[in-house]
Amino acid sequence: MNRVISAQSLDLTFKTNDGPVHALKDVTLDIHKGEFVSFIGPSGCGKTTFLRCIAALEDPTGGTLSVNGMTPDEARRARAYGYVFQAAGLYPWRTIAGNIKLPLEIMGFSKSEQAERVERVLDLVELTGFGKKFPWQLSGGMQQRASIARALAFDADILLMDEPFGALDEIVRDHLNEQLLSLWARTEKTIAFVTHSIPEAVYLSTKIVVMSPRPGRITDVIESSLPRDRPLDIRDSTEFIDIAHRVREGLRAGHGDDV
């Protein structure tokens, strides 16, 4: 399989007034084209930090990291990825279409190309007809879908998602999980997804990366045996429960290492 993201012995230590903070230690991981990889672990385990390293928002202090065969900074300049943050981050004075168009405007796409891409991604996230609305006129779940549409607008191969559904209620979250799987199937993007939810990680992923706290290390990498077509009720299956149990054991082992 084609490696899209490759980390080898990655370290990241932050210097603070209280001394060094070891955010990542000896992280080695390959993410291949078309995979849906979830990162799960307790707060402070380095999940988001690793995503930020991929996006060239943080600089590792050791090891190597490549994105599409380039350095993270080269990949950033090549528009290799879209990034979806925990909060939708939509500008309230811009319409939904205006928010989605923003990266396209910055990149110099023509107005006709901007309009075509906005319509396409609104359809992908099931927001057709909402382009002229303002963010305050949409629910939290719809705002996050608009944020995903913005990240998809310039058609990057990689989608980085930092706990995008964490603040939503369980019913909305379930619905967006279903929509995200459908979107992934249609676009064949490579997705790296941060979550605190074991059921969400197991339901969405082809691969689950379990991380431990202080410093962030990988305690387990679980290749999912679930089929790609996953109705919500697959969460009641023995196979799903077994994978969730292994994730839980990996989290427990990571905490045990820290005692």
How would you characterize this protein structure?
This protein has 259 residues and is α/β, with parallel strands linked by helices. The protein has 2 domains: 3-80 and 157-258, Rossmann fold; 90-155, no CATH class. It is built from 8 helices and 9 strands. The protein has helices spanning 47-54, 72-77, 96-107, 111-124, 140-152, 170-187, 198-204, 238-258; strands spanning 3-16, 19-32, 36-40, 62-67, 81-84, 158-162, 190-195, 207-212, 217-223. The strands form 2 sheets. The protein has a 6-stranded mixed beta sheet with strand order 5-6-7-3-8-9, with helices on both faces. The mean pLDDT is 91.
- Overall mean pLDDT score? 91
Low-confidence stretches: none
Task: Determine the strand fraction and express it as a percent band.
Answer: 25-35%
In CATH, what is the homologous superfamily of the largest domain?
Answer: P-loop containing nucleotide triphosphate hydrolases
- What is the N-to-C succession of helices and strands? EEEHEHEHHHEHEHEEH
In short:
By secondary structure, this protein is an alpha/beta fold. It is about 40% helix and about 25% strand. It has 2 domains: about 5-80 and about 155-259, Rossmann fold (3-Layer(aba) Sandwich), CATH 3.40.50.300; about 90-155, no CATH class.
